Amino acid sequence: MSKCSYSLDTHMTTEHLNDSQIAVATQMAGSIGNLIQMMNDPNLLALASFLRLRRKKRLPLYTNNQVFVRNDPLQLAKLPDRIGNRSVIKLSDELFFGAIVGNQRIGTLFLTNNDFAKALQYDSTLIQRMPLNYIVAWDIDNHHWLHNSLRLGLYADHYFPAQYTNLGFMVRLLGSHVECVPLGSCQWDIDFLLSNMNRLRAERRIESPIGLHGHYQQFSERNQVVMSWNTVSKNCLLTNDLTYYTNLSQSERLTIWTSTCTHLIAPVNSDLPFRFYDGLITRSCLLVPYELQQQIKLLDLDQEDQSLLTFYARERLTETYMMNLVKQVKENWENFRQRQSKISVARMKEKIQEHHVADRVDRIFRLVDKMVAEDH
User: Fold this and answer.
1) Taking Cα atoms as reference points, which of 235, 372, 217 lies closest to residue 226?
2) What is the pLDDT of residue 34?
3) Which fold has domain 32-184+357-375?
4) 329 near 262, Cβ under 8 Å?
5) What 3-state class would DSSP assign to 308?
6) Rounded to whole angstroms, how far apart are CA atoms 260 and 262?
């Protein structure tokens, strides 16, 4: 019998539910009941109307020909200098947070939830002040960082969550203008990928999956999934420090992503993480948990992209099961490689642009333009 690194049986010693399992389920149900009651509070329901009226008054602050972003190497630094008809101006932390915390007027600011959280470290009263800049926010962590999501939604003129998880909760609080815009790949700039398309199409020697994931104590189940995959591939591992990887050049990162046909996706809370789109943009096969199937359907991926996905069940991660999946991915990759050899250069360019973070920023601001026009 193969070694079982993680399965449902490791958590259950009987076919019957025990008192602890019933208690935690009951406690969760009670908490959700309290939340539903709070979400029907008249003061809370009035938020959406208040925010809509406030946004209409702030419309003169909106600049539709340029957008200012934080030059953050982990998220938006790889944006092109122009997206559609807008100039993208990347600011140092000093200038960016000066515009937010110091309330220096520059125009339309595009910030992520991480930018906002850091701004709150400079000034915790930020949410209670009226910014002189028009604020468009992209919440990449609304699947788990809800207290920050709520504050960001109340602060911003336009709030766009990146995850479908908890989307209904934010719509309830902030109104119908909330719309999900999923993540995209942000590790490489578009021109770099276009000039290295030959590396995306080249043969890949390593067959075992790769997946360097950060270790987060609060997401123990996700950590266990990565540790389970580590039993069949030492390239799937957890780390407390991602500095080594984040300090690599674009070329060094691309070498890692194109060294194997298979990459592991182990989300923390039913989210579609950046690495999912890194896999698509590098034309790599992805091992994805079944729980993400519904979110992926909402992306409306074409058959070419869908053929890169192999789904796994978190509760069935025995060594035999995982090795069979790796074998299945290898077969999928060989089939994809045969089809890829017939794909035109123009088609490859389309895929790079489709899955890049620049496409998402363009999508967000086209939605903002529409909402601004409706508010006039």
Assistant:
1) 235
2) 80
3) Rossmann fold (3.40.50)
4) yes
5) coil
6) 6
